[in-house]
Design goal:
Distance between the termini: 34 Å
Number of strands: 19
Radius of gyration: 28 Å
Structural class: alpha/beta
Strand content: 5-15%
Bound molecules: 3-hydroxybutanoyl-coenzyme A
Largest sheet: 8 strands, mixed
Number of helices: 30
Strand order of the largest sheet: 12-11-10-13-14-15-16-17
Length: about 700
C-alpha cells in the first residue's frame, strides 16, 4: 500500500540532474500522495547544491494519467498541495525541470507537464486531455496553456474530443519539445544540454499574456460543429468558452474563468453520470469467479462476408490479427472484399487512416471457401443470417475441422447459444461474441456465455475485446441477451405510442433530444422493417396470452415499405433525407381504428418516460436472473451498442437518478396497458419499496448493483 511506503515519489541523483519518479500504481494519478511527494522532492532538489536540473518521470507503465478521480468529492482532493500548487512551484522553480513522458500523460498529468520548463516523450507515448469524457474540463490550466502552444483550432479539437495524441504529433503541435529513445536517459541528456547551453524557459502563460489575432468566427463555427456531436453534453461547450477567454482576457483572468467553469461542470448532473460510466466500463471487463486466464489469439476466421462479417474481419485486421474471411462462393467473397476496401478508402479519404495502415490491414485479410483453409485459426466467428438451422450446420462443420482448443464463436444477436453448442462435441469451446453493426465502428462486444462454455474461453474473449479496441460485457444466454432483450420494450412502446396518437416525428425528436443518435422509428427504417418483421415472427410465438405487438410494422411491409432501402418506411426518403409521409399516418390511424384505440396528443415528457422507463425495468430483471452481472454492464452495453447518452450514465444510472419508485409506477402502468411482460420485476419492486434511487449522493454505488436477495 502506498501509505506504508516512504513516498509516492522517489528521489535519485544522476550527476547534476535529480530524477523524481512517481510510483503510484496502477496509473500514477496525481493523488494527494503523489502531489505531496512531488512537493517534497522538488524542495529537496531546490536545496541540493549538486543538482542543476530536474527530471520528473513516471515509474511502471506510464507518466501521470491525470487527477485521481477516486479522490473527487473527498477531503483528499481539497487537501494541499493541489495540482495548481505544484504547478506554481514548477513555474517559479530556479532550476530547469524536464517532464519525461512514457505511456500516457493525460489530464492533470499533461497539465503538470505543461508547467515544467520542457517536455520530452518516447515515440510510443500518448498525451491528451480526456476530462471531457468525465463531464469536466482541463481544470489545471489546460484550456489556457494548450491553445497558446497549439493554436485555437487544435486546442478545441484536443479538449472537446479527449483524444490521445501520439508523441510525433504532439511534437509537431508544440505540446512537447523532443522525441527521445528512452524517457529517463533522454530527459537527463536533454536536461544536461539545457544546463550546458544556459537556455532559459518562460512559463507558457507568460509567453503571450493573451492570444491575439484569432478570428472570432472560429468560436461560432466550433460551437456549431462540436454542438452537433455533443448531443446534449455541456462540457465541450464550456471548453470552447474557456479557449475563447484565452483570446479575450489576460492569462490570470483566463485561468480564473477556467476554475469557475470547472466548478459549474463539477456540480452538474453529467459529471457523476460520466464518472459512473468510466468505472462501469472498466468493471465490465472483470468476471468474478473465473478460474482460468486468457489464451493468446494470434489468428482468426470469420464466416460470412456480408456487412457484419466484413466489419468483423476489419476489426481483427485493424488490431493486427491475421484473419480469413470465408463464404460459400468466390462472388460473395469478392463482393465482401470490395466493401471492405471501400470502407478503408473512405477512412483514408477522411484522413482518419493512413494509406500505409490501410495496406497493412488489407494484407492481413485472406479469403477462403473451404473450412480446412482456416482450421488452424485460434478463433472463428460465425456471422451469417439469423437462422438456427444454418448456424447448426456451420457449427457441425466447424467441429469437424477446427484444431483442438480453437474458440468457436457465433455473432448471433438473439439465438440460443446452447442449441448451437449442442451440435458440437466441444460445447465448452462455444461462445457468443456479438458485435454491433457496423462492427468496425460500434464499440460494443457483447460476449454470451453458454451453459457449458469454459472459463478459459470466457477469459479469452473478454481479453480479446481489449485487443480489438472494444468495450466488453458478459451476458447470460437468453433471447436478445443484455441489449436486444431490452430493445424490444423500447421499440415496442414506440409502436403503441403511435397507435395512441404520437407521431413518428415526435417520438424520434424526443428520443434524439434525450441524447440518442437516432430515434427508434428512424432506427427501424434504417435497419429494415422487413428484418424487424422476421425477428418478430419468432418472438410472436413466445408472447404470453393477451400480449401483442403493434401491427403497424407488418402493415407497412405489406405495402412494400421496408425502410430507407426501399425509399419509404415510416418516413419517405430522398437518398438519406427523410420527410413525414401522410400514407404512414393513414396506416397508423387505420390500425388504431381497427383496434378501437382512442387517439390523443402526448407531451414530450410523457413520451420520454414511456420510451426509457421500460428499459430500466427489463434491465433490473436481467440483473435478477443473472443475464447481466451488474447494472453498470447494462449501461456499458447501451452506451456502446445503441448510443444511449453517456452523460446520462446509461439506462440503469438514469433510472436511479429519476427515482426507482417512478420507474416502478411506470412499469405497473405499462403492464396494465401492454400485458404481464411489462410488469415490474422483484428487484425493482423491492428497491422502489425501500425508497432507493433519486439523485444518487456523491460516491454512492448504484443500488441496482445489489443483485437479488
Ligand atoms: N483516477 C483514478 N483511477 C484511475 C484513473 C484516474 N484518473 N485512471 C485510471 N484509473 C484506474 C482505473 O479505474 C483502473 O482501476 P481498476 O484496475 O481498479 O479497474 C486502473 O486505473 C487501470 O485503468 P485502465 O483499466 O483504464 O488501464 P489502461 O491501461 O487500459 O488505461 C489509462 C490507462 C489510459 C490511463 C486509462 O485508465 C485512462 O484513460 N484513464 C483516465 C485518464 C483521465 O481521464 N485523466 C483525467 C482525469 S481528470 C483531471 O485530470 C482533472 C484535471 O484537469 C484537473
Amino acid at each position: 500500500m502506498i501509505g506504508e511506503r516512504m513516498s509516492a515519489v522517489s528521489y535519485q541523483v544522476d550527476g547534476e540532474v535529480a530524477v523524481l519518479t512517481v510510483d503510484y500504481p496502477p496509473v500514477n494519478t496525481a493523488s494527494l500522495a503523489v502531489r505531496t511527494g512531488l512537493a517534497e522532492t522538488l524542495e529537496r532538489a531546490r536545496g541540493d547544491e549538486a543538482v542543476r536540473a530536474v527530471v520528473i518521470m513516471g515509474g511502471g507503465k506510464t507518466f501521470i494519467a491525470g487527477a485521481d478521480i477516486t479522490e473527487f468529492g473527498t477531503d483528499k482532493s481539497k487537501a494541499s498541495p493541489s495540482i495548481q500548487d505544484i504547478q506554481n512551484i514548477l513555474e517559479d522553480f530556479p532550476k530547469p525541470v524536464i517532464a519525461a513522458i512514457h505511456g500516457t500523460a493525460l489530464g492533470g498529468g499533461l497539465e503538470l507537464a505543461l508547467t515544467c520548463h520542457a517536455r520530452v516523450a518516447v515515440a510510443s507515448a500518448k498525451v491528451g486531455l480526456p476530462e471531457v469524457n468525465l463531464g469536466i474540463l482541463p481544470g489545471a490550466g489546460g484550456t489556457q496553456r494548450v491553445p497558446r502552444l497549439t493554436g485555437v483550432d487544435a486546442a478545441i479539437d484536443i479538449m472537446t474530443t479527449g483524444k490521445h495524441i501520439s508523441a510525433d504529433k504532439a511534437l509537431e503541435m508544440g505540446l512537447i519539445d523532443a522525441v527521445v529513445d528512452d524517457a529517463r536517459t533522454g530527459a537527463v541528456a536533454f536536461a544536461r544540454d539545457v544546463v550546458a547551453s544556459g537556455r532559459s524557459f518562460m512559463p507558457v502563460t507568460q509567453r503571450d499574456d493573451k492570444i491575439t489575432g484569432v478570428d472570432p468566427s472560429v468560436f461560432a463555427r466550433a460551437r456549431a460543429t462540436v454542438g452537433k456531436k455533443a448531443r446534449g453534453k455541456i462540457a465541450p461547450m464550456a471548453i470552447i468558452d474557456c479557449v475563447e477567454a484565452a483570446c479575450s482576457s489576460s492569462a490570470a483572468q483566463g485561468l480564473a474563468f477556467e476554475t469557475e467553469k470547472f466548478a459549474e461542470l463539477y456540480a452538474s448532473d453529467q459529471r457523476p453520470a460520466l464518472m459512473h460510466y468510466f468505472f462501469a466500463e472498466r468493471e465490465a471487463r472483470k468476471v468474478p469467479g473465473l478460474k482460468a486466464v486468457a489464451k493468446p489469439i494470434r489468428s482468426a476466421a470469420v464466416i460470412g462476408a456480408g456487412t457484419m462479417g466484413g466489419g468483423i474481419a476489419m476489426v481483427f485486421a485493424n488490431a493486427g490479427i491475421p484473419v480469413t474471411l470465408a463464404d460459400i462462393s468466390d462472388e460473395a467473397l469478392a463482393k465482401g472484399m470490395a466493401t471492405i476496401r471501400k470502407n478503408y478508402e473512405i477512412s483514408v479519404s477522411r484522413g482518419s487512416m493512413a494509406q500505409g495502415k490501410m495496406d497493412e490491414a488489407l494484407a492481413r485479410i485472406s479469403t477462403a471457401i473451404n473450412y480446412a483453409d482456416f482450421a488452424q485459426a485460434d478463433i472463428v466467428v460465425e456471422a451469417v443470417f439469423e437462422k438456427m438451422d444454418l448456424k447448426k450446420d456451420i457449427f457441425t462443420r466447424l467441429d469437424a475441422v477446427m484444431k483442438p482448443g480453437a474458440i468457436l464463436a457465433t455473432n448471433t444477436s438473439s439465438l440460443d447459444i446452447d442449441q448451437i453448442a449442442a451440435v458440437t462435441e466441444r460445447p465448452e469451446d462455444v461462445i457468443g461474441v456479438h458485435f454491433f453493426s457496423p462492427a468496425n465502428v460500434m464499440k460494443l462486444q457483447e460476449n454470451i456465455r453458454g451453459a457449458r462454455t469454459s472459463d478459459e474461453v470466457i477469459a479469452t474473449v473478454m481479453d480479446l475485446g481489449k485487443t480489438l479496441g472494444k468495450n466488453v460485457v458478459l451476458a447470460g444466454n437468453c433471447d436478445g441477451f443484455i441489449g436486444n432483450r431490452m430493445l424490444q420494450y423500447y421499440t415496442g412502446e414506440a409502436g403503441f405510442l403511435m397507435e395512441q396518437g404520437a407521431t413518428p416525428e415526435q417520438i424520434d425528436r424526443v428520443a434524439e433530444k434525450f441524447g440518442m443518435p437516432m430515434g427508434p422509428i428512424s432506427m427501424r427504417d434504417m435497419s429494415g422493417l422487413d428484418i424487424g418483421v422476421l425477428v418478430r415472427k419468432e418472438r410472436l410465438k413466445k408472447l404470453p396470452p393477451g400480449e401483442r405487438f403493434s401491427p403497424i410494422l407488418e402493415r407497412l411491409v405489406e405495402q412494400g415499405r421496408c425502410g430507407m432501402k426501399t425509399g419509404k418506411g415510416f418516413y419517405r426518403y430522398e437518398g438519406r433525407d427523410k420527410s413525414p409521409d401522410p400514407e404512414t399516418t393513414q396506416i397508423i390511424e387505420d390500425v388504431a381504428n381497427e383496434l378501437g384505440i382512442e387517439r390523443r396528443t402526448f407531451t414530450d415528457e410523457e413520451i420520454e418516460f414511456r420510451l426509457f422507463a421500460p428499459l430500466v425495468n427489463e434491465g433490473a430483471k436481467e440483473i435478477e436472473d443473472g443475464t447481466a452481472l451488474r447494472a453498470g454492464d447494462i449501461d456499458v452495453a447501451w452506451v456502446n451498442g445503441y448510443g444511449f447518452p453517456s452523460h446520462k450514465g446509461g439506462p440503469m444510472f438514469w433510472g436511479e437518478q429519476v427515482g426507482l419508485d417512478k420507474i416502478y409506477d411506470a412499469a405497473v402502468a405499462a403492464a396494465e396497458r401492454n400485458g404481464p411482460r411489462w410488469a415490474p420485476g422483484k428487484l425493482l419492486k423491492r428497491l422502489a419499496m425501500e425508497g432507493k434511487g433519486g439523485r444518487t449522493p456523491e460516491g454512492a454505488r448504484c443500488h441496482l448493483h445489489e443483485k437479488r436477495r
